[in-house]
Amino acid sequence: MTPPDALALPHVVEAIATGLGNQDDLESFLRAVPRSLWTPALTAFLDCNTAAPHSVCANWPRIELRDMDLSPEVLALLAATLPLRPRIQLRCPILDAEQLASLVAAVGPALNSHAVSSLLLQRCPHLRRVVIYVVFILPTGSIELNDLLAVVAHRHVKKMIITLPRAPPRLGYLLAAWLSTAPATKLRLSHVAQMDHDAVIAFCDALQANTTLTKLAMYNAPALGGFHGRTLPVSLKSLDWHARPNTVVDDATLTDLATAVGPTQLERLICSVFGQLAACPAAAPMLAQLQWLTVSGPSADISSFFYCDLSLSTELLMETLATTCVHIATLHIYAPHATRDGASAVFAGTVQSRHLTSLRVSMDLFDVLDVLMELVAAGRHLRTLHLKITFPNEETALLLEANEAKRVLCRALALTQNVPFVVDALPEDTDAFVVDALGPRADRGSRCRLIFT
Q: So which domain of life are we looking at (predicted)?
């Protein structure tokens, strides 16, 4: 096929090719065009998959890099694709800043989402998300880390995730600069145990003045306390705040935290000290409009983020939700060791929270069976119930595997008059009468969906 004269120009061919939506269309078009009309950039893009098939995957409009150990020839090939403006993404860990420097020297303007060294800050103007994850710092790594943190002040990054046990003093100032100049929407800080006090105050001041942040997550960041008397951004919709496991949060931090959240328009809260926070008068305005809440009980899983001691009893917790958090629509309770009375209080309290439509809870099988009537009553109030069945000990877990536990509960529910539940995914080998009572049917759309997790 010979293209019309008007199309027989390399730059026209390139313009058409880059306007196509996927790799198949790109290849089909180029196969119909003489290779002599391909631009060097188009040729380089198609050659990426054969030059380093295990390291580079070119799938228009993206190029995925699966290895940082790239030869000079491959780097040159990647650089040659830049006129096409491909979306270059890193799908591999960065273990050597020197390799990253070589890569960005070649293709920096096309990178848009990865953890990056600050030396390359000006070469990556399209960054939108930065992740910095440091488990430990080698003696020789402090200078490199200090340089790396300059990226925190990037003017165009919207999302920042930082895990940094030993934060250099400048981190607070860099975060303050980012919050003051960038269109920040999401910030997550984990294990920030130490930071210069003046830097902390600079960060908290900038946080209070910010007007774009919508999500903030703080996991074990004692250096920042409860934000030291500052309030959180008026734009904030979601807050995760978790103290270090098995530690007591002092009254001053709780008061500061309540002061910080009080004037906000939070819709979603995940908090390891919710019981204590709910008792602080300063938090009341925020609680009144809260729609989504996760609280948790003591957990034996040390890898879990959801730690807390429910300092409010379960009964008082549910009463607080009904009288204070009157707009709660979604509630997650992580309390695998809740007592029978606690299980009863959760289900009974559900009925009192008139806007609550979705409940996610972990409970012991035998406690659930003991409070079956309360469970049924809750089902008549809810639209969705996510239930994770736990066991009182390992011996019981070995004797009664998860599917059998679900079958036991489903049999009990199926024998209930006017059962309010429908179960989309019943356990294998479920009895026919249970399927008839709980299985999905067109006329059961108004029932509460019981979902086993």
A: Eukaryota
